[in-house]
Amino acid sequence: MAYPLELGFQDATSPIMEELLHFHDHTLMIVFLISSLVLYIISLMLTTKLTHTSTMDAQEVETIWTILPAIILILIALPSLRILYMMDEINNPSLTVKTMGHQWYWSYEYTDYEDLNFDSYMVPTSELTPGDLRLLEVDNRVVLPMELPVRMLISSEDVLHSWTVPSLGLKTDAIPGRLNQATLTSTRPGLYYGQCSEICGSNHSFMPIVLEMVPLKHFENWSSSML
């Protein structure tokens, strides 16, 4: 999860988020190089008195500053498209969970089980125990198996919401009357926090999401105890 004064992204927990972090670093380096070159040219123009009139009509220079930006855009677009297609892939999910957004809580239904569903509300500040995180703890966590592809079906029953877990690289809108889907795979166990990322009313900031990723054996024991 995030910590105070954090400047970068949260640590990646899924292969998709790792790809997004690599793409961010790749793009940021290109932006840094372009900014440095522009700053150098501006400082050079302001400090030198030399002028080169022959460059004003140079076709070579015009060719370079036309082709070079196109190459840079291709270097950014190709990895971006690759990640977009990877995010849309659904590879034989081992489990499907339906998530419904409400004002202002989430409800979850494990569709592979006959009667496994619950609502997830934020724990009020007055009921927090030592070690709990304010505005992020819930009364019912979403327990999922790690290292297995899980399909999330996301919708809403009232207004627009957005089901977001940053460390997994997930942000999917919950739209009334429409079913969106996302795939998540966690590479390690742990608790992963998120929040609604679409302004949905007065209690928009009180819709946390908590995923508890556990080994498959522990997930089976949990699901048996919930049925």
From TrEMBL:
Q: One matching Pfam family, short form?
A: COX2_TM
Cofactors:
Cu cation
Q: Does the keyword Magnesium apply?
A: yes
Q: A biological process (GO) annotation for this entry?
A: ATP synthesis coupled electron transport
Residues in domain Cytochrome oxidase subunit II copper A binding? 92-225
Q: Which Gene3D superfamilies match?
A: 1.10.287.90, Cupredoxins - blue copper proteins
Reactions catalysed, as given in the entry? 4 Fe(II)-[cytochrome c] + O2 + 8 H(+)(in) = 4 Fe(III)-[cytochrome c] + 2 H2O + 4 H(+)(out)
Cite the CDD domains for this sequence.
Answer: CcO_II_C
Annotated transmembrane regions: 27-46, 66-85
Q: Which GO terms describe its cellular component?
A: mitochondrial inner membrane
User: What subcellular compartments does it reside in?
Assistant: Mitochondrion inner membrane
Q: What is its main location?
A: mitochondrion
Q: InterPro entries given for it? A: CcO_II, CcO_II-like_C, CcO_II_C, Copper_CuA, Cupredoxin, Cyt_c_oxidase_su2, Cyt_c_oxidase_su2_TM_dom, Cyt_c_oxidase_su2_TM_sf
Give the molecular function GO annotations. copper ion binding; cytochrome-c oxidase activity; oxidoreductase activity
**What keywords are annotated for this sequence in UniProt?**
Copper, Electron transport, Magnesium, Membrane, Metal-binding, Mitochondrion, Mitochondrion inner membrane, Respiratory chain, Translocase, Transmembrane, Transmembrane helix, Transport
Q: Which membrane topology term applies here?
A: Multi-pass membrane protein
> What are the Cytochrome oxidase subunit II transmembrane region profile domain coordinates in residue numbering?
1-91
Cofactor stoichiometry and binding? Binds a copper A center.
> Of which family is this protein a member?
Belongs to the cytochrome c oxidase subunit 2 family.
Explain the purpose of this protein. Component of the cytochrome c oxidase, the last enzyme in the mitochondrial electron transport chain which drives oxidative phosphorylation. The respiratory chain contains 3 multisubunit complexes succinate dehydrogenase (complex II, CII), ubiquinol-cytochrome c oxidoreductase (cytochrome b-c1 complex, complex III, CIII) and cytochrome c oxidase (complex IV, CIV), that cooperate to transfer electrons derived from NADH and succinate to molecular oxygen, creating an electrochemical gradient over the inner membrane that drives transmembrane transport and the ATP synthase.
**Which proteins does it associate with, and in what oligomeric form?**
Component of the cytochrome c oxidase (complex IV, CIV), a multisubunit enzyme composed of 14 subunits. The complex is composed of a catalytic core of 3 subunits MT-CO1, MT-CO2 and MT-CO3, encoded in the mitochondrial DNA, and 11 supernumerary subunits COX4I, COX5A, COX5B, COX6A, COX6B, COX6C, COX7A, COX7B, COX7C, COX8 and NDUFA4, which are encoded in the nuclear genome.
What's the protein here called? Cytochrome c oxidase subunit 2
What organism is recorded for this protein? Answer: Cynomys ludovicianus
